Amino acid sequence: MSILPKMIFLFLNIPIIRSIQRFKNWNKDLSKFIWGGKKPRIKRTHLIDEKKRGGLGLPNLQLYHDACGLTWIKDWATLKKTLKILTLEGADLRSGWHAYLWYDKKSIEKNFGNHFIRSSLMKIWDKYKRRFHLKTPLWISPLEACERKELGRDNWPRYKDILIRTNNNYQIKSQEDVSKHFTNIGWFQYIQLKEYYTKDKKLGFEDQEGYWEMIMKLEKKVISKIYKKLLEWETETDLIKECMSKWAKNLGKSIQLAEWEKCWNTRLKHTYAMDLKENWIKIFYRWYWTPQKMAKFNKNASNKCWKCGVEVGTFYHCWWTCKKVKVYWKEVHWRIQKMLQIRIDLNPKYFLLGMLDIDKDRNKEVLFNYLTTAARMNLAKFWKDKEIPEIRVYAPTTEAEEETKS
Questions:
Q1: Would you say 328 and 374 are in contact if contact means Cβ atoms under 8 Å apart?
Q2: Which residues contact 329 (CB under 8 A, 6 or more apart)?
Q3: 60 and 191 housed in the same domain
Q4: What is the distance in angstroms between the CA of the first residue and the CA of the last residue of the chain?
Q5: For 94-118, how does the pLDDT look when each residue is reduced to its tens digit (9 = 90+)?
Q6: With the C-alpha atoms ordered 121, 124, 125, 126, is the resulting torsion angle positive or negative?
Q7: What is the span of the domain harbouring residue 148?
Q8: Is the pTM of the predicted complex or chain greater than 0.85?
Q9: Which of helix, strand or coil describes residue 134?
């Protein structure tokens, strides 16, 4: 996908999009392109979710924009960017970067928000700041926040350098201990540190390093790491997908999340063929149109099964409980047992979802998934036909096999 790197380049160098309406318009255009102008069959939250959680990995442009903006914030927080560049970015500022990142100095100094790039970046930071930190982080430097213009040093004392933990409480070190590691810390600077410490102590300090501290240490793949975290927060309310609940209801018992994760992270990787993966994904998301669905928006259409013409054509009925379809699956079941030389229950959990664990024989498990996928694809080709596909289309039958079966 060549479009995404180009968009990331723009987001990283010009992170100035402050209105979400632009992203909404882009999402509509993407949806029209993906679904050909028709109604989407899969929710957008499922499309953008990570593949290891059952999503399809569609890029979320707004989250990529936010991730690129947070890389700028990372430089302001670490203070490791070239001093001249940081000075140039904040040439018109009165206080240090940490004053705007944590002490809300921007609400007092309106000049900070008048810069169209800084205001956009701070809007992104304010959006996720409380997600990263509920208490005062230890990477904050109070002295940089109040005296950056006056001192202009490279090495600033942070809370993790000047605090010591005793009995689950943080206490500030003495002036002598602080001066050993940071020169030019006089009595006046030490009083400033104590004043900030007294204020921040009310909120409390972080007990351990969080995800943002890990990001601050990274030098490579920063955007991807931030994006994955933002995406996790974006989709955290949709951990159990609606289709998963419907499958559990059809099967009459719950399916453990670990079983779904094995399908997403292991079984789908058994093949590189996209048409095979596509079939399982369509089954999982219940993608196929059924008579029941079509009857809802077309009054002239019947909701009866296309094959038996008796029962209501629900998704599960069309794939498993239809009398004619049952005959097809019995044929497939008999052939797979004969090929693998093992006994397998005729269970929709195995044949539709591929959730069969064959102990100590991974090759047979992989082959079983290939065979059941081929059977599903064969049935899908005759989806709207009244008759079921002949078994010879799925696998040629010899006379000897017919005699053995009879």
A1: no
A2: 320, 346, 351, 375
A3: no
A4: 53
A5: 888 999 999 988 888 888 888 888 8
A6: positive
A7: 136-205
A8: yes
A9: coil
